[in-house]
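In this supplementary section we document a worked example of the pipeline. Step one takes a protein sequence of length 136 as its only input; no multiple sequence alignment statistics are reported here. Step two produces a three-dimensional model, which step three serialises into structure tokens for compact storage. The input and output of this example are shown verbatim.
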Amino acid sequence: MAVNLTLSPATMRMLVQKARAASASHLGGYEDGRDREIEFDADTLQDSHAHDGLAEEETDDLSAEELAELIADLNVDEAAELVATVWIGRGDYEPDDFDQAVEDARDRAFRSTAKYLIGMPLFADHLEAGLDALDL
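The serialised model returned by step three reads:
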């Protein structure tokens, strides 16, 4: 099926990869079944019930933030096409209804597209299925 896109299919496929990386980093923190070690800051430990002595656990994986920024940087047309492609992949629309899905995505854009898509279970799978359904 030939569709005219503002957002390139290559960019959407890159978003699939970023979404999978973000999902893997989120779910993969405890692969070995053990909790992570927590370091205590001895200088701030006191005989109290406060948790000020716990060091903040940080991660260098910024995949989810990067994905959110990439989606947030899309213009209105690109974001609508992305959402429409996800909806097609999820089965909400048929590939032949792509133009209607894009129009509906524009009409329903009340909040952050990034939050909507990243919060969607199986976002990467739906986007990839939508791209495949549209032969992109």
